[in-house]
Amino acid sequence: MTWPSARTAVAGVIGDPVEHSLSPVLHNAAFAALGLDWAYVAFPVPAGRGQEAVAATADLGIRGLSVTMPHKAPAARACQRLSPVAERLGVANTVTNIDGVLVGDSTDGPGFIDSLAEQGWSPTGKRCLVLGAGGAARAVVLALAEAGAARVDVVARRPEQALAAAALAGPVGGLGAAEGAEEADLIVNATPVGMTSDGLPFGLDAKRLGPGQLVADLIYAPAVTPLTAAARERGALPLNGVGMLIHQAARQFRAWTGQDAPVEAMSAAVLAELGRRAGRVARFSQPR
Ligand code: NAP
Question: 135: which DSSP letter?
Fold first, then answer.
């Protein structure tokens, strides 16, 4: 087989920037594992051009798109149909081209729930504290409420942003505080705090973490953040964002190909790539 050929199905990711996206690694590993004649590429699309880029996929016959910052809201506007989740959030991280009709979905929240399920953990009846109120937090808040959480409290620098995110959880949503962390069964960091800094989000006191809690950080690089390190030290179960990253992509793969995603192959490929990148950073940080 000559690959790619005129028959190769094309999928891709749009973003600005997009060069560091792990989506090509995840999806090409999945296509290869199942021997599918598909190829996945990254399209750098400048801010302000997302809606046009998504609309063009119908004419180009692109079968599926992942959408990253800053195009998630414009992508939702470009779609002819939206899933209920994408409709509620007003964003799409996934576009599926069904015979020229563009269908938008948001797989981040369900992907996060899948990553909890992988740990044998269900949000049903649980008290959840979400730190941050941006795009990822909103997706997680909605997904936790839909999965039957008893409480979904949100902490943010701006109370109006926290309230808007909490409203997605309906009657179980509310304003939270880092001081209430010991009451929570699940704590989710949906801020970038911990990616490059040492502290815990919102000055969270590590003494409020303990056995019986699941402490999830949506950050996947570095693999261990100050929050997950503190959780482990205090006897809580730590979880980083790699599982969410894999499962949101697995749901995209299913939408585009109609096949179950080869999660093990995707996981192996992304962990190898993350390891390669971490090694590169470590090498470059050595004193010369
Ligand atoms: P976003 O839309 O920009 O939201 C970021 C949120 O964090 C906002 O509420 C922001 O508040 C808050 N924040 C930023 N810096 C803060 C600080 N120093 N102290 C307190 N709050 C702060 O970003 P996002 O897309 O939601 O992403 C959030 C995190 O989730 C990132 O680390 C991202 O890498 C991760 N993520 C992971 C996955 C995955 O698959 N694992 C998927 C999506 C996102 P303000 O509005 O006040 O600045």
Answer: H
Look-up of token digits 């046009």: 52
pLDDT (tens digit per residue) in 262-278:
999 999 999 999 999 98
pTM for the full predicted model: 0.96
Pair 83, 59: CB distance under 8 Å: no
What are the structural domains, with CATH classification, of the chain? 9-106+258-284 (3.40.50.10860), 110-242 (3.40.50.720)
For residues 129 and 181, what is the distance between their CA atoms, to the nearest angstrom? 7
Coil, helix or strand for 44? strand
Pocket of ligand 1 contains residue 158 by CB under 6 Å: yes
The H-or-E segment that residue 34 falls in is: helix 23-34
Shortest-distance Cα residue to atom 41 of ligand 1: 241
- 56 three-state secondary structure: helix
Q: Compute the mean pLDDT over every residue in the chain, rounded to the nearest whole number.
A: 95
